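Aggregate trends can hide what the representation actually does to any particular protein. The sequence in question and its C-alpha cells are set out directly beneath this paragraph.
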Amino acid sequence: MTAPGPTLLSSIAGIPRFRRSELAGFRQGWKRYGDLYHITLGRRDLWVCSHPDLMQDVLVTNRKWWRRIERMPDGTPFGLSLVLGDSVLTTDGAEWQWRRRLINPVFHRQRVDAMATTMVESGRHMLDRLEFAADQDKPVDLLLEMKRVTQDIISQTMFSSDAADDADRIGAAVDDAIQYTARRSRAYVNIPLSWPTPAARRFARANEVIDELIYRDIAERRAGSGPDSDDLLGLLLDTVDEESGRHLTDEQVRNEVATVYGAGHETTANALTWAWHELMQHPSVLGRLQAEVAESGLGDGVIDVEALTFTRAVFEETLRFRPPVPLNARFTPVPTRLGDQEVAPGAVAILVVNNVHRHPDFWERPDEFDPDRFVGSSDRHRLAWLPFGAGPHLCVGNHFATIEGTLLLALMANRFTFEPAVRLPRSAAVAVTMKPRGGLPVRVKRR
C-alpha cells in the first residue's frame, strides 16, 4: 500500500509554514493525509504519526527497533546529547537500563509523596514574591516565576539546600543550551560547532556554567565537605548497580544532574503557565478549583494532595491541551513496519503528541479545555494521553511532576487571581518544550 503524503515539491513549499508553526503544519497534514503519512525531504524519510496505536508501535511493541536520535551516523553527539551527554534521557538499550536502575529509587512514589512538604515550602516563597508584585501593581512574567519555583523545588528535593543558590544559574544555562540544540536539530544545514558564531559562543558559555557548578558540587561531595545526604546527587555518587557492578564517573554524574535540572523544572513550569493561561479564560473552572482548595484546608497548612482531585484534573487537562513536549521522534536502523506500512532503514517516526491529544476518536470536543475529562475513571485508549511518554522510557519523574503541579496550582489559587497583561490566547513557541511565545505577563491580584 502506498503511503499518503505530500509530494516533494509541496513538502519544500511548506517549509516556511513549518518554520512559523510546526504544530500547525503537522495538524494540517494530519487533517489532509490521516493518522500516518509520509514525507520525503532530500535524504530524510519521515513518517508522521498521530494515533495512539502508532505511539504503541514505536514506544512499546517495537521499541527495540525505534531509537532515540541523539547521535549522528559517525557517532558524534546530536540534539540533547550536545548538552546532556550520555544520560538516562539520551541513551537506549543496556546503557539506558542501568542508568535508569540507579535513578529509580529517588523517584519512588512514597519518597516523592514525602517531598510534598518541601514543595509547599518552596511554593510559599513564590507566594511571597507574588505578594510583592501585587503591592507594586506591576506586571510579572508568570513563566519566569514558574521556572524559578520549579528550579527551587528541584534543588531542594534532589540536591539538598546547598544547591539552591545556584538553581537560577544552572537552570538558565541548561535552558539556553537546550534551546540552541533544539534549533540546531531542526536545521536543514548546520555549520560546525567550532565556528565562533554568536549562538555557538552563547552555547559554549552555557555549557561552561553547567560544568563549573555541577563539577564543583561533585568535588565537594567527593571530598566530604558537602552535605551528607541521600539526595539524588549522593545516590548517583555512591550507588553501584547490582546487576552490572558499574558506578557512574564524575562525567556521567554531571550528565544525569544536568538532565534532572533540564527535564525536572522546564516542563512543569511550562505546564503551570499554560494552566493559568486557560484558567484566566475559564473563570468557572477557576472558581471550582478555588472552592476545592478552600475545602481541602491547604490555606491552614494542611497538605492532602488526595483531596485536590479537581485541581489535579486541571493540571492533567493542561497536559493534554498544551503538552509540554508536543513532538517526539525516533529512528529505525533496520527495516520494520509502522501501522500498515513498510518502513526502510534510517526512517524517522515523528510522534505528534499534540495531535494524539486532540484526536476526535478519543476525545469529545478535543479543542476545548475541560478538566472534567480527568474526573473519575475513563475507558479511553491508554496512549491517547501521553504527556510523559510511554513504555519503558516513561518519564521517571511523572509522579513528581503531577504532585508538584497540583500543589503549586492550589497554593496560587488559594491566595491570588491573575489578570492578563497581554491579549489571550498566546501563541505557542516550540523548541524541545512548548511555552507561550513571549511568556505570560500578568497582574497579580489578592483574593
